[in-house]
Amino acid sequence: MLYNYIRIGVICMKKVLKITIIFITIFMILCQCVPVKAYVDIEPYNPRESGDVGNGIVFANKVKRVLGIIRNIGIAVSVISLSIIGLREMLGSVEEKSRIKDSIPGYLLGLFLVVCMTVLPSILYNAFAQ
Which residue of 3, 31, 73, 122 is 20 to 30 Å from 130, comparing CA positions? Predict the structure, then answer.
């Protein structure tokens, strides 16, 4: 008896889920049909003609230099620490190996943040500087 009620509830829930998905799909389609009243300037912005270039280039060069230093230091530290962690795991006992395996995700997250936060702005700068 209880099984029948659960089965009926699951069937009803599937119907409700299908109806909800249909309504969300219709709503998304209708939201795409909204007209946009945006103004587009046809004439491209050229900072060299208006004289806005001076301070921006100096600032960009300073930021580029600082990001390069931080990137190089971060990569060097990550390579050295990865080598140390690898040696400790190869030469360590079973308990130390398990402890090192627990610390690896934190290390990888830090490495990812250091590399992405320094390499990504330099990639974006080089892409938009051309």
Answer: 73
Q: Are 64 and 122 in contact (CB under 8 A)?
A: yes
CB count, 10 Å around CB of 27? 9
- Distance from C-alpha of 34 to C-alpha of 37, rounded to nearest angstrom: 10
How far apart CA 22 and CA 18 sit, in angstroms, is 6
pTM value is 0.48
Q: Domains of the chain: which residue ranges?
A: 1-34, 54-130
Name, in order, each residue with C-beta under 8 angstroms of 56's C-beta and a sequence gap of 6 or more.
47
Provide the token pair at 17: 């889920």
Reported as a single tens digit per residue, the pLDDT across 72-92 is 888 888 888 888 888 888 888
